[in-house]
UniProtKB/TrEMBL annotation:
<protein>
    <submittedName>
        <fullName>Glycosyltransferase family 2 protein</fullName>
    </submittedName>
</protein>
<dbReference type="InterPro" id="IPR050256">
    <property type="entry name" value="Glycosyltransferase_2"/>
</dbReference>
<dbReference type="Pfam" id="PF00535">
    <property type="entry name" value="Glycos_transf_2"/>
</dbReference>
<dbReference type="InterPro" id="IPR001173">
    <property type="entry name" value="Glyco_trans_2-like"/>
</dbReference>
<dbReference type="GO" id="GO:0016740">
    <property type="term" value="F:transferase activity"/>
</dbReference>
<keyword id="KW-0808">Transferase</keyword>
<dbReference type="InterPro" id="IPR029044">
    <property type="entry name" value="Nucleotide-diphossugar_trans"/>
</dbReference>
<feature type="domain" description="Glycosyltransferase 2-like">
    <location>
        <begin position="9"/>
        <end position="171"/>
    </location>
</feature>
Length: 248
């Protein structure tokens, strides 16, 4: 805990058997109270490995629900067990758990309600192995999103995120897509609700075991992101009805 606030790390997992231990071993349990792993019907031994590591809350979907569907289960379970601060960390070891301290303290001290670990702040994205086409797409999408959503984020596409209980209880994340665009829908909901979003620099690590989507899925994701940003713009500027304005 920090300032009597319960900290829960959630791990949305899919075929993460080879990297769960590396990730779990670096979680700072001096402040983290609980860990939740949701296995999205993996084809490997993710579920069994998580149990062997001693993770208290391990959930397995009976069928693959998608990245967004996995996160919904993560956040719902975190709120169920009384989390005050929830850190979403990928168990593929692409993001270092060593930033959990910094992200948690910003929320625990009521400085921000949402914190992102940005791969784009600094100059490490390409050096860390991010494919050039993904880097360029990230920059172009983020530039467009910042204009449409009147924000100044360095990226909207990181999978390393921290939320306060207040944010998770306010935004209607369960109404979002079960696919990868969930992340952007949730950020749009948070911005629409009037919360400021903090970012801290996060080292970039790309390697064979790290999860990644292919070019086709990336293209579909990109179009979905633009749709979310345009929907936000229309809802904010002209009052067009949207799921983004829903509350839990």
């Amino acid at each position: 805990m920090i300032n009597s606030k319960k900290i829960v790390v959630v791990l949305p997992a899919y075929n993460a058997e080879k990297t769960i231990k590396q990730t779990y071993d670096e979680i700072p349990f001096d402040i983290v109270d609980e860990v939740i792993l949701v296995d999205d019907n993996s084809l490997d031994n993710t579920y069994e490995t998580a149990h062997k590591l001693g993770i208290n809350h391990v959930i397995k979907h009976p069928e693959n629900r998608g990245y967004g569907g996995n996160q919904k289960s993560c956040y719902n379970k975190a709120l169920e067990i009384g989390a005050d601060i929830v850190i979403m960390l990928h168990p593929d070891y692409q993001y270092t758990p060593k930033l959990i301290h910094s992200m948690s303290y910003l929320i625990a001290n009521d400085v921000y309600q949402t914190v992102l670990g940005s791969r784009i702040l600094g100059k490490g994205a390409l050096k860390g192995g991010m494919p050039v086409y993904k880097y360029i797409a990230n920059r172009l999408l983020t530039f467009t999103q910042n204009i449409l959503m009147n924000q100044k984020l360095s990226e909207y596409h990181t999978g390393y995120r921290a939320f306060s209980k207040e944010v998770l209880e306010k935004v209607a994340y369960n109404s979002n897509s079960d696919d990868f665009v969930f992340d952007n829908q949730m950020l749009a909901q948070i911005c629409f609700a009037g919360y400021e979003i903090a970012e801290i620099t996060c080292p970039t690590k790309y390697f064979d075991e790290a999860s990644s989507i292919n070019f086709k899925r990336s293209s579909i994701y990109g179009l979905g992101v633009l749709k979310v940003s345009m929907t936000y713009f229309l809802a904010k500027t002209f009052g067009v009805k949207s799921k983004l304005v829903l509350k839990r």
